[in-house]
Amino acid sequence: MENSGTPARAGRREWIALGVLMLPLLLVSMDISILYFAIPYVSQDLEPSATQQLWILDMYGFVLAGLLITMGALGDRIGRRRLVLAGATVFGAASVAAAYAHSAEALIGVRALLGLGGAALMPSTLALIRNLFHDARQRGRAVTIWTGVMTTGISLGPVVSGLLLEHFWWGSVFLINLPAMVLLLVLVPFLVPESRTGPVGAGAGAGAGGGEAGGAGARAAREPFDLVSAALSLAALLTVIYGIKEWARHGFAPVPAAVVVLGLALGHLFVRRQQHLAHPMIDLELLGRRSFGGPVFANVLAMFATVGMAVFLTQYLQSVQGLSPFKAALWSLVPASGVIVAAPTAAMLAQRVDHAYVMGGAFLFSAAGFCWLTQIRADSALWFCLAAAALYVGGLVAAMTLANELAIGAAPPERAGSAAAVLESGQELGGALGMAVLGSVGAAVYSREMADALPADVTAALPAGEADAVRETLGGAAAAAARLPEETAAGVLTAARDAFTHGMGLASAGAAVVVVGAAVYSFALLRGTAEHGEDGADAGSEGGDLAPAQTGAVK
Question: What is the pTM of this model?
Answer without folding.
Answer: 0.74
